[in-house]
């Protein structure tokens, strides 16, 4: 009889826990963004008439626990004074809107397919994709000057 009661209580607890997770919204913890710290090579390409131009190469050292918004969304090129709004963050992606004074509004995103690689783009209203970005982690940072 004791075994049945324990099993019954366990089943009730499991059902309760499952029900709570189904209605509780899940938010990304600031510490669990899916990108590794280290030295990143970023390739930035401007898109004109549907064709990506030659890449601009940027190197960036990412610290452990760095803010994903200032680290992986700072590449967004701005035509005039722009403000990022409607920021959405998940463990492996960032998405946001850009409202610019001198250009049409745009949307941007960064998607990680692994902790060492991401792609992203900016799409402007009425113009389509205007910028592409790709990041690859190469190594650990060896000094603050990396």
From TrEMBL:
It holds the Pfam family DUF3617. This is Uncharacterized protein. It comes from Luteibacter rhizovicinus DSM 16549.
């Amino acid at each position: 009889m004791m075994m049945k009661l324990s099993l019954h209580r366990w089943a009730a607890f499991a059902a309760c826990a499952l029900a709570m997770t189904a209605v509780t919204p899940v938010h990304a913890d600031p510490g669990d963004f899916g990108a590794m710290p280290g030295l990143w090579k970023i390739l930035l390409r401007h898109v004109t008439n549907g064709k990506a131009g030659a890449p601009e190469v940027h190197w960036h050292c990412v610290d452990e626990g760095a803010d994903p918004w200032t680290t992986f969304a700072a590449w967004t090129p701005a035509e005039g004074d722009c403000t990022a709004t409607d920021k959405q963050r998940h463990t492996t992606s960032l998405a946001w809107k850009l409202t610019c004074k001198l250009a049409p509004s745009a949307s941007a995103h960064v998607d990680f397919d692994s902790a060492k690689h991401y792609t992203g783009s900016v799409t402007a209203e009425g113009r389509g994709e205007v910028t592409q970005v790709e990041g690859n982690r190469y190594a650990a940072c060896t000094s603050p000057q990396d």
